[in-house]
Every structure is written in C-alpha cells, then in structure tokens.
C-alpha cells in the first residue's frame, strides 16, 4: 500500500515553527503519512518533540518522489511562494498556515493550525486555482531562460540609481514608452504585493489578467493598466545601466539594455486549499484595513 506524502516548506528561523510543527504533524503521522521537509528545520522538529525517525530530510523537497499529496507552508507569504516553486508547480495542493503577521496567501492563523488540519481531513476545505505568469529574457536571438511566477515579474534598478526606459507591447501592438525606476507585471495573486505599493489596483484572485505598473514613473499621466492574461506582453529595455529581473522576489538575473522580457500565461497553475469561510474582501479588511474611514 502506498503511503500518502506530506511535504513541509517552513520558515526555519520563525520562533513559532516548533509550536506549529507540534500542532500539525502528529495528525499526519497518526494517519500513516510520510513527512518530508528541508533538513534545516530538523532542529525545530526535535524541539517540537516529534519522533526523529519520522523526519525525512531533502533539500529538494522530495523532487525525485511521486507527486506529493499535500504541501504545508508554515511561515509567511514568502514561504508559500517557495512552496509554490518547489512543490506546487508539480501539481500538489498548498495549504498555508501563517506564522507571521501579513499572510495574504498563508491566511490560516497559526493559533488555528490544529483545527485547520483536522478540517482538511474532514473534507471541509475547498480548492482555489491561481494563474501563474511565465517570464523569459531574450537577448538578441538567445533565450536566457524562462520561469513561472505566482506573484510578479519585476524589473528594477540595482545600485546605480539611474532612470530606465522601456517599450511595452501587448499582443504585438505598441502600448507605451515609459521612463521609470522600474516596472512590475503582477498576477491577480500578486496584485496585493509590490504592485499595490506602486499604486496598482487590487485584482480579484479569480481574474485571468495581469496588471502592469511602473515604479516611480517620470510622468504625471501614466497609470497602471490591466490586460487579459491570454495576450502576450513584451517589454524592451531601451536604456539601463544596472537592472535586474526578479520573479516572486526570490529568483533574480541581471538584464541589459536591448534585452526583451517576454511574458505570457504559464501552462502551470497553483492550487490553494482554503477554508469555506475564506473571503477575499474580509482578508483585505483584516490585512490592509480596506474601506476603513
């Protein structure tokens, strides 16, 4: 009989990790699940009083194994983005438990961790699919690599604080020429992250669209724009001296003047497991004080 598999992706430096592990792991072990995690959380595992022989450490989060049945993200939104990249893109659903303070993606509070896991086994949760953005850099005729992103693709300046110039095309048509400190293309999931801080709108998670926001544009008329996700977006850097492309705030590469960033809807999607009581608007009110006077 094949044993079900749980992968844990956790914020190893969180002071609440041991308590979180103690709350959630015994329920899985009691049901005969195999539990895999990065070796760096083994100290917290031991501090939680969990059986050492039940810990299966793997720096690649079980990448060589069959697709895990579930991934628990214990931490903040950065932890869930890591979980999405290493585990979720393989088709494993993600259940986020927040050990931090913000938690748009890991929205289940740590104080309810045990009840959340019990509700999962009772079938009381629903699944929610999130669209991903695929980004690749083209230099001349060479494609330098492509990666999916759950939140956003950001072109930002490095140490040299000089303005950058971009040309944006949507579905092959010229859309804008921009002078700015950077540019953000965000998914609906990422619309409440960096894009929001740059003045972009909040997109409902179920929308199939991107929002393009300039960072500190040198124009009083330029505003963020929302485009359908099925339309390809191309961004050419006409002028830059020190620029970087960052995906989900975690993967970074240097880009040069003349490079073209090509963005399209990824063939991969992320599945989140949510409480049936989850409300996106309640989350906005709780985390961002949405509509407070």
UniProtKB/TrEMBL annotation:
The active site is at residue 77. NAD(+) binds at residues 77-78, 151-152, 162, 179, 181, 192-197, 250. GO terms for biological process: NAD+ metabolic process; NADP+ biosynthetic process. It holds the Pfam family NAD_kinase_C. GO terms for molecular function: ATP binding; metal ion binding; NAD binding; NAD+ kinase activity. One of its GO terms (cellular component) is cytoplasm. It is found in: Cytoplasm. Keywords: ATP-binding, Cytoplasm, Kinase, NAD, NADP, Nucleotide-binding, Transferase. The keyword Phosphoprotein does not apply. This is NAD kinase. It comes from Mesoterricola silvestris. The lineage of its organism: Bacteria, Pseudomonadati, Acidobacteriota, Holophagae, Holophagales.
């Amino acid at each position: 009989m094949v044993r079900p598999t749980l992968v844990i992706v956790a914020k190893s430096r969180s002071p609440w990790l041991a308590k979180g592990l103690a709350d959630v792991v015994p329920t899985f072990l009691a049901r005969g699940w195999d539990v895999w995690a990065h070796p760096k959380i083994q100290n917290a595992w031991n501090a939680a009083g969990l059986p050492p022989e039940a810990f299966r450490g793997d720096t690649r989060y079980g990448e060589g194994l069959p697709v895990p049945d579930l991934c628990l993200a214990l931490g903040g939104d950065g932890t869930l983005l890591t979980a999405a990249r290493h585990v979720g893109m393989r088709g494993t659903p993600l259940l986020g438990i927040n050990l931090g303070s913000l938690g748009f993606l890991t929205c289940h509070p740590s104080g309810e961790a045990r009840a959340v896991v019990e509700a999962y086994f009772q079938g009381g949760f629903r699944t929610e699919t999130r669209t991903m953005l695929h980004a690749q850099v083209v230099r001349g005729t060479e494609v330098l690599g492509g990666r999916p992103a759950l939140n956003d693709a950001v072109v930002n300046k490095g140490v040299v604080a000089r303005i950058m110039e971009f040309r944006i095309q949507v579905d092959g048509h010229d859309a804008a020429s921009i002078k700015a400190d950077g540019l953000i293309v965000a998914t609906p999931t990422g619309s409440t992250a960096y894009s929001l801080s740059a003045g972009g709108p909040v997109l409902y998670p179920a929308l199939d669209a991107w929002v393009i926001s300039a960072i500190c544009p040198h124009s009083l008329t330029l505003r963020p724009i929302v485009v359908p996700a099925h339309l390809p977006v191309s961004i050419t850097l006409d002028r830059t001296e020190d620029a970087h492309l960052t995906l989900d705030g975690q993967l970074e590469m240097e880009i040069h003047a003349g490079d073209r960033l090509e963005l399209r809807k990824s063939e991969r999607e992320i599945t989140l497991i949510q409480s049936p009581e989850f409300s996106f608007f309640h989350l906005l009110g709780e985390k961002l004080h949405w509509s407070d006077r």
